[in-house]
Recover the amino acids of this structure.
């Protein structure tokens, strides 16, 4: 069992930056492949970024590539999402998610993750 707590969301103007954090507890954090997803009102949950257990390989949605960076500190049991050059279309509820590193299923699919944070709201004004 892994407990995930998201934080760091807020209201920011277009072009601004935010850093989201996701603190994990319960099991060895480095055993988990971590992802960030977001869901805007009336839309399906979509993949944003993901990180392998050691943080040496990352994946990004095309819509955020070059603007967002996922990182993790296994010593602090925390994964981060640095978001720069924010756009109004980035407005959503952001969730971190975890799955054991040997799990199958595409990393971009929400159904491939077992544990979820409660979400942190990001609102970007134009």
């Amino acid at each position: 069992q892994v407990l995930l707590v998201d934080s760091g969301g807020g209201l920011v103007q277009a072009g601004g930056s935010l850093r989201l954090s996701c603190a994990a507890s319960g099991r060895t954090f480095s055993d988990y492949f971590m992802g960030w997803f977001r869901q805007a009102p009336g839309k399906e949950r979509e993949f944003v970024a993901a990180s392998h257990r050691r943080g040496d390989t990352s994946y990004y949605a095309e819509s955020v590539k070059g603007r967002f960076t996922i990182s993790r500190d296994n010593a602090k049991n925390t994964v981060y999402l640095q978001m720069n050059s924010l756009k109004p279309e980035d407005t959503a509820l952001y969730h971190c998610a975890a799955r054991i590193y040997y799990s199958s299923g595409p990393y971009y699919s929400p159904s491939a993750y077992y544990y979820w944070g409660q979400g942190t709201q990001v609102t970007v004004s134009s």
